[in-house]
Amino acid sequence: MRLIFVGPPGAGKGTQAKIICAKWKIPQISTGDMLREAKASGKLPQELVQKMASGGLVPDEVVIDLIRQRTEQADAQSGFLLDGFPRTVPQAEALDKLLATRAEKLNVVVALQVAKDLLVERATLRRTDKRTGQIYHLKYKPPPPDAELEHRADDQEEVVRNRIETYEKMTADLLPFYEKTGLLRRIDGVGEVEEITRRVMAALEAAK
Ligand code: AP5
After folding, report:
1. Cα dist from 57 to 86, 141, 171, whole Å
2. Tell me, what CATH number does 19's domain have?
């Protein structure tokens, strides 16, 4: 299976992606995680660090290159879940071209939908365990006492609001793009995590 998870900041893409990838034994490929790793190792150019910190998108060619390299790796040959990529129509077109060169196809695009106020609450109270990568929430999924918690630099309320605005502007054309292909499944992302997993799984099973 080759899947895409689309959705605004805090919609639950990472949370659901980890569950689905563990069930289906496919890699979760998150451009956000890859960019944060590049930043942590000092390899991300300063202007891109600033772009992320302000809630904007990094240039298409940067993330397209990351995806090209990552999907060439051995563990991605029988499928993958793209989390947060593509975010623009040029990125989606580049992905189509890339897959065509390998005679591969996408199976389904899941769009998680959550109202804006809930997105802000979800993102600002998110904490991640540095050691395990596990995602927690101070209200909805409290971390265990021994977790080594990180608060993402872009999870300050003002930046979260900018990220939501960027998503609305930059990603607006992406859903109609995938709607036309017949691959898009819009899923209500409000409810218990387990209930949303059930909704996603039902959409994926139907697309197999
Ligand atoms: P990225 O890391 O992709 O961030 P994002 O898209 O803004 O998404 P988030 O990680 O904030 O949210 P999520 O949907 O994964 O939610 P989560 O599951 O963690 O991108 C970061 C930046 O990198 C971008 O701003 C951009 O600069 C750059 N970038 C990345 N990709 C790019 C691209 N393709 N092109 C250009 N630039 C790119 O959940 C959030 C919280 O809610 C957690 O605390 C979780 O525990 C909680 N939660 C989840 N589900 C539920 C639920 N059902 N009920 C209650 N709480 C829940």
Report:
1. 11, 28, 10
2. 3.40.50.300
